[in-house]
Design goal:
Length: 169
């Protein structure tokens, strides 16, 4: 049986994942209105992935006989200065999320809850990818800062991203 402390931490994490989805959706809406349709697509696909992250945690809690807690999801920032600001904020946000995931891994180890530890490891791996892809795009956006033609090229590259279940389901 999962402890109350750990199940609470997982519920909090599910909330953080749904907040991430909401944040990416707000960023996607901003990019869409700014006519960066490809970047909007990339952000929208990211929002879908975050929803899967959140749902997967809720399902895990149910499998473990725990009751997930559904708390308020805070409103995300909706307005941005430019595309560079969006990707810098994403990098910072994903680093923050990695910290939250690592804390859950620490707690699972402390409690010798191997099932939760094993479960959260897929999130540890997922965060490596998320930080890497966001960091790569942020670096490219910074490089092409004052070249709209290059930004539109990046926009069409990011427009090709398609949703893929992060857990392969
Ligand atoms: Fe996530
Ligand atoms: Fe994420």
């Amino acid at each position: 049986m999962i402890s109350e402390k750990l199940s609470g931490a997982l519920s909090d994490q599910a909330n953080a994942e749904f907040y991430s989805a909401y944040l990416y959706l707000a960023m996607s809406a901003y990019a869409d209105n700014a006519e960066f349709k490809g970047i909007a697509n990339w952000l929208y696909v990211q929002a879908l992935e975050e929803q899967v992250h959140g749902t997967h945690i809720i399902k895990h809690l149910l499998e473990r006989g725990a009751s997930p807690v559904f708390a308020d999801i805070k409103a995300p920032q909706a307005s941005y200065g430019n595309i560079a600001e969006i990707f810098d904020k994403i990098v910072a946000h994903e680093k923050h999320v990695t910290g939250l995931i690592n804390k859950i891994a620490d707690l699972a180890l402390e409690e010798k809850d191997h099932a939760t530890y094993n479960f959260i490891l897929s999130y540890v791996s997922e965060q490596i990818e998320e930080e890497a892809s966001a960091g790569e795009i942020a670096a490219r956006v910074r490089l092409i800062k004052d070249r709209p033609d290059q930004l539109y090229h990046l926009d069409s590259v990011l427009g090709a991203r398609q949703f893929k279940d992060p857990f392969g389901g």
